[in-house]
Amino acid sequence: MCSCGQSAGVSWRCSHLVAASLSIIAFGAQPLPMPTMPKLHLPFPRVYDGAELASFSFQDNNNMARFHKNYPMNKLISGVKFINTLNLLPHSPTGNVKSCIRIDSETHEEKKKCVHALMVKAEARTEKHDDPELSRRRRREEEKLKMTRRMHLIFFWLFFSLWISVVVSTDEEGENMAALLSIKSQLDDPLKVLQDWKLPAEAAGSPYCNWTGVHCNSAGLVDGLDLSRRNLSGIISDDIRRLHALARLNLCGNSFSSSLPAALSNLTVLQELDVSDNDFVGHFPADLGACPSLLSLNASGNNFEGPLPHEISNATSLETLDLRGNFFSGSVPPAYKSLQKLKFLGVSGNNLTGRLPAELGQLASLETLIVGYNELEGPIPAEFGNLTKLQYLDMAIGNLHGPIPRVLGKLQFLTTVYLYKNNIGGEIPSEIGNISTLQLLDLSDNLISGTIPPELSQLANLQLINLMCNKLKGLVPAGIGELPQLEVLELWNNSLVGSLPADLGHNSPLQWIDVSSNSLTGEIPAGLCDGGNLTKLILFNNALSGPIPTGLSTCLPLVRVRMHNNQLNGTIPGGLGGLPRLQRLELAGNDLCGEIPDDLSLSTSLSFIDLSHNRLSSTLPPTILSMPTLQSFSAADNELAGEIPGEIQDCASLSALDLSTNRLFGSIPSSLASCERLVSLSLRNNQLSGGIPSSLAMIPTLSILDLSNNFLTGPIPDNFGSSLALEMLNLANNNLSGEVPSNGLLRTINPDDLAGNPGLCGGVLRPCGGSNLPQESAAKSTALHIKHIAAGWVVGITAVLSIGIAVFGARKLYKRWLADGLCCADNQFDEEFGGSWPWRLTAFQRVNFTSADVLACVKECNVIGMGAMGVVYKAELPRHHGVLAVKKLWQAETGDLVTEVSLLGRLRHRNIVRMLGYVRNDREMMILYEYMPNGSLWEALHGKQHQQQHQQRVLVDWVSRYNVAVGIAHGLAYLHHDCYPPVIHRDVKSSNVLLDASLEARIADFGLARMMVHKNETVSAVAGSYGYIAPGRYLFSNLLVHDYELVTMLIWLILSSNCGTEYGYTLKVNQKSDIYSFGVVLMELLTGRRPVEVEFGEGQDIVGWVKEKLRRDQGIEELLDATAGARCEHVRDEMLLVLRIAVLCTGRSPKDRPSMRDVLIMLGEAKPRRKSNGSAVAASCNVVGMDKPVFTTSLDSDYL
Question: Which position among 442, 530, 706, 987 bears the catalytic label?
Answer without folding.
Answer: 987
